[in-house]
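User: We ran a pulldown and think these components assemble together. Before we commit to crystallization trials, I'd like a predicted model of the whole complex to look at. Sequences follow.
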Amino acid sequence: MSSAEIRGLNDTLEIAILQSRVLSSVQTGDSPLILDADQLHSLGHELLSVSDLFNTFAAPLQQYENCLSIMNVCKNNDAGIIETLWTRIIARELHVWTPDQHIKKLLASLEASPSIDERGEQFIDGEWALRLSNKITSIGLELWGKGADYTFPLSFIIPTCESKYNI
Amino acid sequence: MTACVSLYGIPNLPAIVEVCLVCASNFRCSNDVQREKKLTTHSHAMWEWENDLYYNDLLSRGYDRQVPDVADGSNSVGQTNPLIHVAERESIANDVRKFCYSLVIHFLRLLFRGGDSAFVNGSGHSISTCRQLAAEMLLVCASSSDYEFHSLLYTSLVENNYSSFLLSLKTPYLEEWLGSYKAKDCGFSSGVDLLYSYFIFNDKHGRACNLMIQRARAKDNTITLGERINCLTKAISSAKSSSDMNNPHDM
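Assistant: Here's a predicted model for the assembly, 418 residues in total across the polymer chains.
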């Protein structure tokens, strides 16, 4: 078997592992979307194509980290999609409440905190900062150095985060 | 049976296999004989002095009896019904053959279990000696050209958790048997796993890789994603081993 064929098998395995992660999140109830029986069976029993996994499952299920990993494995350098995914990941960690209209507006631009009220986590407490930092680090460890570093676009992530820290 | 017990006590295990398989070979159907002509390694064929001793003699005289044909109402006493005749012959032959095979397997299992105290251990053989004797007995078994015997032997080894002995056997039948074992006996997965282990054991990494790729991509909706991932992992491992060994005949 040639090295190219072995690489192909490795890619298939990596995608299958990502598929199992998506499946786990569905099974643990972390998913916002309910799959029908056929979809669930496909997800749990078939080796899905990359596009099916991304478009039918990972993206609708809001599995943004898995979406990035899929793009990393496939070496897909679509900056628009990658930045959108990162925006969603950052927004999710900024699931906080603030009375400040300026901050509210900024968070709304990230589609963050749509349903948090004043009893929720407060923006001013800053706990989100550590959480966001840990999240970016863990994703970076997974994506960086695998020949698709563009899925971890520091030139986009750093300014986006700094704008929040500097509020 | 008595002869086998005596041979076990000596112990002369290869002789047990020889005696039982020669006896069984005298009770075989024409289909079996034809099949084995294609894959003969060492035939336990009838010895000259055995001609007409068991099966032929028994059936040609004892079962060549006259059967009345009631269906057409005619008084047909004195005619023979060849269908009944053949069915009875084959049924008896099957029973005897299976008894012969089961004797070999029985003594083999005794040895694998460390030997029966009345015979082997009573004769001063340790457990490790019993295992060694079992391995020698298996070698003689492997040289048989009787597929039916091989099939029963393999099934017994798998069911009694002696798969490692099975996979080490060098016979022309084992690969085919492992390939078909998946469908009917203990489920597809176990059969495939055994065949994969067989390929790995015999350094056929390319074939092991192909087997796992086929399994991972099989259109079988009972195979879970976890199993497919496991197959892909094994396929990659085998593919790397195959590339390292660079064996052009192993695909």
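Residues 39-43, 57-74 of chain B have pLDDT under 50 and may be disordered. That may be worth checking against your pulldown data before setting up trials.

User: Thanks, that helps.
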